[in-house]
Design brief:
alpha+beta; BirA Bifunctional Protein, domain 2; 5-stranded antiparallel beta sheet; elongated
Amino acid sequence: MIAKHVSKPNQKAAAAHMVYITRTSACVDIDFYNLENLRGANIQESRANAIAYAEMRMIEETHRKHGGCGISKNHMRAVFSFDRKVEAVEARRFVKEFIAKELPNCRCVLATHRNTNHTHVHIFYDIRTADTGNKIQIPDAQYKTMDERYCRAYDKRFGTNYLPDHLALKAETARWKKAYAKAKEAGVPKELLPQKPGRAADRSAGIRNNGLNEKRIDRNKFANTAGQRSITNAHKQLDSCEREVIRFEREFRKTLAASNRLQHTATGVDRANERTFDRTSINRELSR
């Protein structure tokens, strides 16, 4: 049981991540928080709306002016896990209640998975809030203790006692971070650096323990590839629109310049005619 937030996800892969977490091979329920207008008549329609929304937000933030450098953030990610198989509706309701307390003004998509031995809910947070449209600001103290509050709420709801063990593991990880930083600063070779607790296990064994298989991994890779293709197509369409706008502006400037030249020429002709008329009138008066 864990609540894990990804603080720096790949901002270019927002749509691809949405494709991945809502894939039909794993996702059994899709829900929305402060994005109820995206809810479709069925899960397929909700999935299509969620993917389109992620693509739209990625493009909007990419072309939006922002301070600093690099790519403007467009989303955050999180995973809320359970220690057992939980019905999708119950899991989604519990996580949604927790989000409403922690980040009441956020906008997010909740994708519930029951394809492993432990039900888990993937969260796709829009980087901007529903009330002001400003970027989500989470105080550092709140962010670093959100997992503890989730654990406490989990223990209360399901009658477990995971909080003491969770705090002990968290303290162990903190000690490893300090030891790792100190060893790295001292110039210790990479292969001799302290290993993070719990990461020494073989990945294939972890896959088998979680009930996953190679076929599912291939489907996930295909989903990511499909998401990347979708992103590429969206960027191509955007680039095509931008080129069309640039071409239209160029043609408009040419037309405007030509119109100004014609107007200037017409004004010069009128003035010449006026001068001719004035000289004719003067000569007529002088001949009398």
